[in-house]
Each structure stands twice: as C-alpha cells, then as structure tokens.
Design a protein that fits this description.
This protein is an alpha+beta fold and 275 residues long. The chain has helices at residues 3-13, 67-70, 76-81, 102-111, 166-169, 198-213, 219-234, 242-254, 259-272, and strands at 18-22, 26-27, 84-87, 94-99, 116-119, 124-129, 135-139, 142-145, 151-152, 162-163. A hairpin with a 4-residue loop joins strand 5 and strand 6. Helix 6 packs parallel to helix 8.
Length: 275
C-alpha cells in the first residue's frame, strides 16, 4: 500500500473527505470522460464539469470518507499516479486561509486570531473551524478554501483550531467587479432579434439566474449549463448585452464562483456552440 493511500485512509477514518492529486497539485481524472479536461471542467480539472460520469469523479466533488471507495479498484490507478493527497475543507467542517508569501503571513498575524497552522512550500495554511464560500485572491497572496474547493494535505500542523472569525468571512463579502463578458456574434443583416418580445429574453435570463442560485450541488456544472442554455438561444442574434451577462456572472458569484471561473465557463460555452 502506498504512503499516499495510507494517509488518505487514515484521514477518511477521521471524517476528512480525501482525493488523490497528481503532479502539479491537480486532481486525477478517474474516467475517460474527464481525462484531459474533456468533460468541460475548469482548467487543469480543478473542479468538475458537466461530465457523463455516474457520479463526480474528480476534484473536490469526488472527495470521500468511504474507505471502500478510497482503496477500491476505481481509484487504484489514481493512487498509482498520485503525487499527493488532498482533502475537501468544507466537507471536513473547516476553512483554510491559504497564505502564499511572507507578506500575507505578516498580515494574518496582525489581523487574524491564532489557530492551527500548517507550513506549505511558499507560506502557511491557517485552519479555522467553520465553513464558508471559497474564493481566490481575496487579498494579495491570500486564498480561501472551504466549500467547493480542495487543499493539499501537508500534515496536522501545530496549534489549536479556533472558530472561523468574521474577519475571514468578510474577505469574500465585497461586491465583485465583473469583467467585460465575452462578445457574442450578431447575425448578418443587422442583428435583429428574431424572438417574440424583449420579455422572452428577460424570462430566459431570469430562469438562468434562478437555476444557478437554486443549485445546492454541482454548482460548477449548473453554471456552465445555464450559460450554455442562454447562449444557445440568444447568443447569435445580438440581443444579449453586457448587463445581461453581468447578471448571470453575479448569480454565479453568489454561489462561490470567481470572476475568472465565470469567464472560463462562458468561454467554454461559446466554444461548445462554435461561436
């Protein structure tokens, strides 16, 4: 039994959902649908896309505490190529404040209450009890990893885990700045919308927003499919505006999606439709 598998089984027995990572801290794709990002997930398969698997097979959504899954034949190949063990912080009831450099660590020591810390290659992980939405780059050199995210297991660390402070929660509470969306092509002949009324587009946007905000699982896949549905109906007629796309991005961000990930999902949807 490999060292990584032994570590994973030990963590799973303690209620920590685990998954294998290959070189580069990238989750292993456990089926042909997800190999080389073929399922449409985010770059490097860091989160699952709308694949055809019977259940999520990579990234945080695949993390499990079931020892039969961890050590079973379905993950055998994954552990053979694994370079590390990762875990789903939100599934373990914790939040990781990932500090990537000395400046970020200095800020945390000034601004945050002491808690359990784990040394990383470039900085430290500060582990707090409690969950919240994950977000990247909430401050220079600071990422939040909790729900819908994973963190590399680097050992138990030192110190006592304390309650997640409001200071950390507030880091993701700022209203995000939406990027200019990917342009959509209007048809030849002036770009006149062939749909019945402007209300038709409004209903479509509202339904997509509702679909995203109502998602409790598979949020990434839901966002992608909602973008795909809107684009398939309205993406070629020229009726979509920056305001419409901004509403979709904002709905996705309330579910924990970052601006970068929204842009990636939008680009994937346009590529899927050949735009």
């Amino acid at each position: 039994m490999s060292t990584h598998l032994t570590t994973a089984l030990d963590l799973a027995a303690r209620g920590v959902p685990v998954l294998p990572l290959r070189a580069g801290k990238v989750p292993v794709g456990n089926c042909p649908h997800c190999a080389d990002n073929a399922c449409g997930g985010r770059p490097n398969m860091k989160t699952p896309g709308p694949c055809g698997c019977a259940r999520p097979c990579h990234a945080w959504a695949a993390a499990t505490t079931d020892p039969a899954t961890v050590s079973g034949p379905g993950w055998a190949a994954a552990w053979r190529q694994a370079g590390a063990v990762a875990y789903h912080p939100g599934g373990a009831g914790v939040t990781v404040v990932d500090l990537d450099n000395e400046a970020a660590i200095a800020w945390a020591r000034r601004a945050l209450p002491a808690t359990r810390t784990v040394s990383t290659t470039r900085g430290e992980h500060w582990i707090y009890q409690g969950v919240m939405q994950s977000a990247n780059a909430v401050r220079p050199g600071v990422d939040i990893k909790s729900t819908m995210s994973y963190a590399r297991w680097l050992g138990p660390g030192t110190g006592t885990t304390t309650a997640l402070p409001d200071t950390v929660r507030a880091l993701t509470a700022q209203k995000p700045t939406l990027p200019r969306p990917v342009a959509v092509a209007a048809p030849a002949g002036g770009g006149t919308c062939p749909h019945r009324t402007p209300a038709y587009l409004e209903r479509g946007i509202a339904m997509a927003e509702q679909r995203i905000t109502a998602a409790t699982t598979a949020v990434h896949a839901t966002v992608y499919r909602a973008f795909l549905a809107v684009l398939s109906t309205h993406g070629r007629c020229g009726c979509l505006t920056d305001a419409h796309v901004g509403r979709l991005f904002a709905a996705a961000q309330t579910k924990g999606e970052s601006v970068r990930h929204c842009t990636t999902a939008w680009a994937n949807a346009t590529a899927r439709l050949g735009m």
